[in-house]
Structures are given as C-alpha cells and as structure tokens.
Write a structure and sequence with these properties.
Helix content: under 10%
Distance between the termini: 24 Å
Order of helices and strands: EEEEEEEEEEEEEEEEEEEEEE
Number of domains: 2
Radius of gyration: 24 Å
Number of strands: 22
Structural class: mainly beta
Number of helices: 0
Largest sheet: 12 strands, antiparallel
C-alpha cells in the first residue's frame, strides 16, 4: 500500500485507515522521508485489544516494523498534514512512505551460509544449512530488530590447500550445534537489522581449542592448531536490506591473512 501519492494543499490533512485481516502477520512502515518537507507531519494511531492507543508522531520515523504474533495491532490510522500556510501545495511523491503487509511471521529466520577463508594458501571452508535465528527483541517497534542463533546442525570446517612453505594442509574441526546459549553450544551467532538505516549485520562464530589440522611438508606430518574463523561475517559497511523479507548477500575480503568469501541466505521460517 502506498501511503500518499498526491499533492497536499496547505492547511490540509489526509487520513488512511488500514484494518488487518487474520492473514496479515507482519506490518512494515518504510521509506518515510516526509520530515524533509517543510510543514509536513505524520501521526499514527494504533488499535489493539485494549482499544485505540495514544497518537504517535512518526514524522521522523523512517521505518517501523510490527510482528503481529508478538505485538498486537488490529488497525492503523495514518494522518498526514500540511501546516505550511504560505508554501502552497506540497508534492509528497518523492518522499512518501509505504505500508507493507505480509502473510509470514517475523519471529524467526532460517537459511544457510557458505564460507571459504584463506590464509596464505591454506583454505578453510564450511557450508551450513538449517540455521535458525529467533527474534530476541524486547521492543519490536524499536529501530533495531535483534535475532539470536538458536538452531543449527553440527558444523564441520574443512582445511585444505598448500601454504607458502609448500606444506599440504588437511583436517577437520567439528562444532556442536547451536542452542541459543553461549555456555553449552560451540556455535553462536546474532543478526541485527537496523530499520532506520535499512541495513543489517550478522556474525556466527564457533571454535574448538582442541582441534588440530595436519601439515605435510615432505617429512613427517606435523599438527597445527585449527584457526577460529567466523562462519558468517557480513562485513563493513553493513549490507542493505531489500524490499522483501529475504536477507541475502555476499562479503568478500581480499586479504591473504584470513580473508575470504562469505555468502548467506535467510528467509522467514514457515
């Protein structure tokens, strides 16, 4: 739904009343730039099971998300007004927000990661499917939407390649599945969405201090400590979110010192 695609005469207001059906599971108010237009204000009034709530000033709010299975909202009224009595009509189209309603929940994201890390000829790779992030957000209306990794299969890192000394590298590091805690699962991670900037950052880590890989340099093989590399690293600057519910991307670090490539794909859990 487009909130406003027409001129607003001075000292006027327009009302939009949206009532959500049972199939509407997530609501996203996004791309609002009306604060850049002098005299324009936007107010929002939400209806919940307790009735109509106090009006909220959304003029400066760029994005706001609601998960309806976590935050009750049955109806939303948006009021846009033009208080500029000298400036005449205001064209809202270049700055107008949009209201998107989707039929999926936003309390969990599932997906996969494919990673390859390099260290001067040594190659460390991992591919993981069945990752699950669960909403961990005390205030889902806040600017930031935070998810914590609560599920994964067992993870196996593979070491291969020939390093700068001519040694052939081999070995594996096995990690326990994630369970959403730091103390019992060796795989841990988080994903944070910044609704105001329209971007996000994610990190999944895991290590086993006792894991070893083998280096064969022509003589007797020797054991080396298996490095602790991030399973997921979205990099900097933060990647941008798309218009849909899918979060996917690729980060490439060209450094020879634990640089590499991380690709990921996450979508709402069914």
């Amino acid at each position: 739904m487009d909130v406003a695609f027409r001129d607003m005469q001075r000292l006027s207001a327009v009302y939009y009343d949206v009532e959500f059906s049972a199939q509407a599971r997530s609501v996203l108010f996004k791309h609002n730039q009306l604060s850049e237009i002098p005299g324009i204000k936007i107010w929002a009034i939400r209806k919940t099971g307790a009735g109509w709530q106090a009006p909220e000033d959304w003029t400066e709010v760029t994005d706001r998300a609601f998960c309806r299975n976590q935050t009750e909202i049955s109806e939303l009224v948006l009021i846009i007004s033009n208080s500029d009595w000298q400036g005449g009509a205001k064209d809202l189209r270049p700055r107008s927000p949009a209201l998107t309603v989707e039929d999926h929940d936003c309390t969990a994201l599932v997906g996969n990661v494919d990673t390859e890390v390099n260290y001067h000829g040594r190659v460390f790779s991992v591919a993981v499917s069945g990752l699950r992030f669960t909403l961990n957000d005390p205030d889902p209306q806040d600017r930031y939407t935070s998810y914590i990794l609560t599920g994964s299969p067992a993870v196996t890192w593979h070491a291969s390649g020939t390093d700068e000394f001519g040694c052939t590298i081999s070995g594996e590091m096995h990690l326990d599945p994630a369970d959403g805690t730091v103390t019992t699962g060796l795989v841990n991670g988080s994903l944070v969405l910044d609704r105001e900037e329209g971007d996000y950052n994610g990190l999944i880590t895991g290590s086993d201090p006792g894991a070893r890989m083998t280096a064969t340099c022509g003589g007797a093989p020797s054991e080396l400590v298996f490095p602790s590399n991030p399973i997921l690293k979205t990099g900097f600057p933060n990647p941008k979110m798309g218009d849909g519910p899918v979060i996917e991307g690729e980060y490439v670090d060209p450094s020879e010192n634990y640089g590499g490539r991380w690709t990921w794909h996450f979508e709402p859990a069914p």
